[in-house]
Amino acid sequence: MSAVLEIEKLVKRYNDGTLALNGINITIEQGEFVAIIGPSGAGKSTLLRCINRLVDSTEGHIDFLGDNVEKSDKKALRHIRAKIGMIFQHYNLVERASVLENVLHGRLGYMNSISGVFNKYKEEDKKDAISWLKKLGLENEIYKRADELSGGQKQRVGVCRALAQNPNLILADEPIASLDPRSSDVVMNSIYTNCKEFNIACLVNLHQVEIAQQYATRIIGIKSGEVVFDGKISELSSSLINDIYEGKEEEMEQKALS
Fold it and tell me: Which of 159, 172, 185, 229 fits a disulfide with 221 by CB distance 3.0 to 4.6 angstroms?
């Protein structure tokens, strides 16, 4: 295996002084399915958003397939983002656009700006998008508007959009947090099976430890912006889980009172 992503000494401090990430070191290999667990406010979402520079890091180094992410110019960053699929908790779909159009948005990073503005997609891209939708059980929703779908269906459209990018890495930020258990199973299976089939590295934030243990080949525990566990599922004991999550509720209550 070869490294897809290398993160060294990553720090993110927001303008209000909040230290969201404090010296993160992570390496992700091709084909790994890695789950990040930790309490709300631990820095999980900030980490994913720093990787594709939806937010800029404060210090440290992010290397994606040999490219320095934080020092990339606009053109280079567009190239990097084209190879990183993103699945959002709240879907991030264009509600008035069709399901097919939403999936095709995954190809925008490979198009020139004029073609992108006028949605002039290649026929090959359209065929691939339809193929992904059929594979994920959405063949009857292809031409519906996104706002006609259920939450689980919307998230599967998001998965198709990410896969349509032909990515080397998928970042999934709490992809099942808003879904019922049945829809959660369908979405997680869709992400996992396709990442494994196409040897795509995946970094997925999960609040549910049992789901992380079910799918991940490796688990990273984050607490207060720091990695406190990085290892195999078999190494994640109940005491370690308690350590990752303990104290956070009390800390948030104290901040609210101060």
Answer: 229
The string of DSSP letters for 174-230 reads: STTTTS-HHHHHHHHHHHHHHHHHTT-EEEEE-S-HHHHHHH-SEEEEEETTEEEEE
Q: What's the predicted TM-score (pTM) here?
A: 0.91
- The count of C-alpha atoms lying within 13 angstroms of the C-alpha of 203, restricted to the half-sphere facing its C-beta, is 28
Tens digits of residue pLDDT in 42-94: 999 999 999 999 999 999 999 999 999 999 999 999 999 999 999 999 999 99
User: Using an 8 Å Cβ cutoff, are 87 and 171 in contact?
Assistant: yes
Total Cβ atoms within 10 A of residue 178: 15
Domain boundaries, the chain: 1-83+171-179+201-258, 87-166
Burial classification of residue 127, based on how many CB atoms lie within 10 Å of its CB (0-12 exposed, 13-18 middle, 19 or more buried): exposed
